[in-house]
Amino acid sequence: MRNRPGNDHMTLENEAGGQSFQVDRLPGVRVFLLGLILVVPLLAVSGRLMFIQMMNAEHFYSRFGQTTESFESIPSRDGRIVSIDGRVLALDVERFDLQAHYRWLEEPPNPRWLKQQALTLLEPVERRDQEKVKAAQEQVLARRQQLWEELAQVMRTTPEELQTSCRDVQERVETIIESVNQRASQKENDSEVTEAESETKTVTKEDQLQQFWSLLKDALTRPPRRPRRERIVVREELDYHTLASGIPREIALAISAHPERFPGIHIQVATLREYPQKTLAPHEIGIRHRIDEKTLEARKLRFPEGDPLDYQEGDRIGKMGVERTYDRYLRGLRGLKKVIKNRQGEIIRTEIVREPKSGDDVVLTLNTSLQDEVQNLLDESLHELRQGTEEQPAEQTDPAAGGCVVVLDVRTGAIVATAAAPRYDLNLLLHPTPEEWQAVLNDPRRPLFPRATQMMLPPGSTFKALTSIALMESGKVDPDEPYVCRGYLDRPDRHRDYIYRHYGVGHNELTLTRALRESCNVYFFQAARKMGPETIYHWADQLGFGKPTGIDIPGERGGHLPDPSPAKPGKKSPWYPGDTLGMAIGQSRLTVTPLQIARLMAVVANDGELVVPHLAHSIVPSAESATTTRQMISYPRRYVSGIHPGTLERVREGLIEVVAHSRGTGYKTVRLKEITIAGKTGTAETGGGKNDHAWFAGFVPAQRPKYAFAVVIEHGGSGSRVAGPVAQKLVRAMLDSSLLQPTQPKLQAN
């Protein structure tokens, strides 16, 4: 019986009467429980899907149309520079560039972008219908084709020309895409090779534990290796690209006013500096150019709490002339706008956060009609000088000759005209080609050199006006005491007169007036010997020589006024008796600028008032400014201490006879019948085998002076023959421009 199937365990269970849970006897329960375990999570997932599709769909659709906000600056207009007679010398002009989003010009269109554009045209419930999505894509393609046709019509061009520009942009962007992805692929390949090499490297027993720990750490912390990445999307694919620059304003406004007609199109507004008068007073007006890193860093250090003019990289700043001096007025302040873009980088709308503020206008004292005439006559004179005449052959003329003319108001110091030759076009400095820039730098005539304020030359006999003031104020020389000029001072071979060198005779008996009239060097030699160099130095210092005049443009030089005082530490050379004689006639180591000589004549003309030459007349607020009142610019004025009116009257008498008297050095070349002119010729020796510098400086009208002027022709030769005719044409131009009125001469030639 013990060999029968079964065991006590089964017997005991049977005897229990089925009281225990019998799994094998209830298979349906087991299947039900398994099904329940599977169905419940599926029901939860299905419920969540239904909730998303029916109840929360708008939340996800809104994320699909999510936008981004960014802030961009709005360029402002810098102030204008305007002449006193109303001509605009510098201004900002708006430039409009037509830009298109890359996805709108890409051919063939990007599939993902095309689908996204199509989905935006459909309702959320329609986006699951593939037929409707395909139809919407066809609608987007048709709209894109219509865009280029309408754009070509507005731009007054053909769709083919626009497509050519689009292809150029696409080729450039595709080159960038290929380059970026090649570098990324190469980098990934190099990384795989490195890892493979590290895996195959033989590990010693000592490093096995460390290697095991590294593998374990990498397995737990390093993300799983992904398949080869998709193509990188570069920034240029999500940006706008310029198709046309400098489009007309009316076209730009027409496109901007109808964004619904031109999707994917953006008008970029920028401002450009222009100088419409081109070569008119370029050295004085100056230029605005892109700010450099050094200047930007200097401003950040100067204004640690924020630049009040808000200069940033890429902005323009005044570099030279009036543009630099009055930059704080001319500078406009940028505005701010909020730009809202979709996920593809397309601009949906813009909002103005802060309006831009234009810069103020600066009005100059220049009379542009006279400025034009002066520049032209200076150019003509230099051209004739280089060509040569019968009196002065061209081979005796330095080919690098230049010239300068300065005219200023004797009462205020306002500069009416300032011309330097040769000159240049200010617009050339904005965007010069390398060839153009090199040509300007290599020009031996130095057209970029501001001669009025930086050309330092010996003044020659024009300085005798100051020596005359010094000898009368010293009390050591009687201006009415006759002096017999033999043509030389001590020896026939030294310290001679011009007429003695050429004709072997002197001026005979003369006084101060006649010495000025005939420019007798010997008279001023003996006067300087009597009064000493200290007196000449004192009055030269009092009248502003040896230091800048204070004109309101940067870079002015003060010339060199040699100091006759005893040797001091650092003094380069001692003082010799010959230096005293040379300084008396505007030679030796004395150098001046044309502006200083013009101011000297103004002091003589206005009874001793030392004016500050200046170019700015007033500041005119912009339309956005809180004030509408024109701001007049004032300049300091002072009378020269210790000078007597009688002294200046006596000097004026001699300067009038220089032109009005038949024996005056300016009689033949400067005198005009319509108006009396006072002045002084000057022929400054240069040495080195080069021609002398030709000067003429004076004021007009002689009896009631209004304007002082200085003319200098660099290496021109004789002052009376070369600079004198230029001065005569200058005064005639002032008459023609109505700055002067003809007067009947009161002083007749003897």
Automatic annotation (TrEMBL):
Name recorded for this polypeptide: Penicillin-binding protein 2B
Keyword annotations from UniProtKB, A to Z: Carboxypeptidase, Hydrolase, Membrane, Protease
Pfam family, one: Transpeptidase
Cellular compartments annotated: Membrane
Organism: Gimesia panareensis
Cross-referenced Gene3D superfamilies: DD-peptidase/beta-lactamase superfamily, Penicillin-binding protein 2a (Domain 2)
Coiled coil: none
Source species taxonomy: Bacteria, Pseudomonadati, Planctomycetota, Planctomycetia, Planctomycetales
Swiss-Prot/TrEMBL GO biological process terms: cell wall organization
Main location: membrane
Cellular component GO terms held in the UniProt record: plasma membrane
Example GO molecular function: penicillin binding
Source superkingdom: Bacteria
